[in-house]
Amino acid sequence: MLDAVDSNPLSLYVMHPFWNTIVKIFPTWLAPNLITFSGFLLLVFNFFLMAYFDPDFYASAPDHQHVPNGVWVVVGLLNFIAYTLDGVDGKQARRTNSSTPLGELFDHGLDSWACVYFVVTVYSTFGRGSTGVSVFVLYLLLWVVLFSFILSHWEKYNTGILFLPWGYDISQVTISIVYIVTAIVGVEAWYAPFLFNFLYRDLFTAMIIACALTVTLPMSLYNFYKAYKNNSLKHHSVYEIMLPLASPVLLFLLCTTWIFVSPTDILEVHPRLFYFMVGTAFANISCQLIVCQMSSTRCQPLNWMLLPISGRNASSLLVNSFPHPGTHPLRSGRGEPAEQALQYTALLAEEAHARLTRTGGRENRLAGCRSTVNNCCKYL
């Protein structure tokens, strides 16, 4: 059984009563994991739908062909349905007495992967250009969301309890509303300042950062402090406590280094694919942490997905050592090798994440067996 605490007023007093009503619609034979996966696929669909109408994130900029208003309605509805399914799957599992460790891994593993899809999709409401934010700023905002996610699982690794972050519910409801409002008023409405010279894009940026710094981070530290005062921490050395954050921090540093040393400005040329690669590698790291939580095993300090990214950085530094543009293929102006390297890294991350999901069932069965043995030993 998942030990989780949800103290968000929006979730407790609005969404949970709504989900309790919705879950009664589903037949009891419907598997909770199917509900989880269906919601995730809706987010993936939104991601590719926006990739079709806004491939380079310029569709919302002035003097560009905008995304049709009907598409915003579809994206908004699907985003809210996906959020609803994510809230209902656990209730369906408890309703049908089918809660399993595999379901926990599947649910939170897909949640970690979903971060990149909904962040990149909502980016299209503002996009880049004079009225939007740069692809690098969005890259940093993506990492704010990713670190907010990993913090909750860092808490569980150390306290044994998953404190559900407040920012998730608030962001999903807000994003769904923004999509519908965009369909009604058009993207041009976001061009005008709403307060002095403060643009809506600035509000978008400020809300993400403020939510992380004033809600998510303080609550995580407070929950950790309570466990420390109650002497209920599962790990006591600073090294063991901070171990789950090693791979995410290294992934951030390596990907950021890749951006700055790339001889072909890889983020500017292929932002969507770069975001996908980052989000998928992060999800792989998150899933391995979730498996360690459930099996009560030590978190590994390094994820092997860091190796190909490190190799790519090394090759970029080597390319930059050539003084003349024509002395190396990556400086020829075409950029095909750099694009292929990004594609290969993204595909490698996706395959590794899919493989982890397939093998996660065995890890969870091992955790379940270990828990059963421990419970039996208590009676001996």
Automatic annotation (TrEMBL):
Record-annotated membrane-spanning stretches: 34-53, 65-85, 132-152, 173-191, 203-225, 237-261, 273-292
Substrates-to-products reaction catalysed: 1-O-alkyl-2-acyl-sn-glycerol + CDP-ethanolamine = a 1-O-alkyl-2-acyl-sn-glycero-3-phosphoethanolamine + CMP + H(+); CDP-ethanolamine + a 1,2-diacyl-sn-glycerol = a 1,2-diacyl-sn-glycero-3-phosphoethanolamine + CMP + H(+)
Organism superkingdom: Eukaryota
Cofactor or coenzyme needed: Mn(2+); Mg(2+)
GO molecular function: ethanolaminephosphotransferase activity; metal ion binding
InterPro entries in the cross-refs: CDP-OH_P_trans (IPR000462), CDP-OH_PTrfase_TM_dom (IPR043130), CDP_ALCOHOL_P_TRANSF_CS (IPR048254), CHOPT (IPR014472)
GO annotation, biological process: phosphatidylethanolamine biosynthetic process
Chief localisation class: endoplasmic reticulum
Keyword hit for Lipid biosynthesis: yes
Claim: Transferase is one of the keywords in the record: yes
Subcellular location: Endoplasmic reticulum membrane
PANTHER family for the chain: ETHANOLAMINEPHOSPHOTRANSFERASE, ETHANOLAMINEPHOSPHOTRANSFERASE 1
Family: Belongs to the CDP-alcohol phosphatidyltransferase class-I family.
Protein name in UniProt: Ethanolaminephosphotransferase 1
Lineage: Eukaryota, Metazoa, Chordata, Craniata, Vertebrata
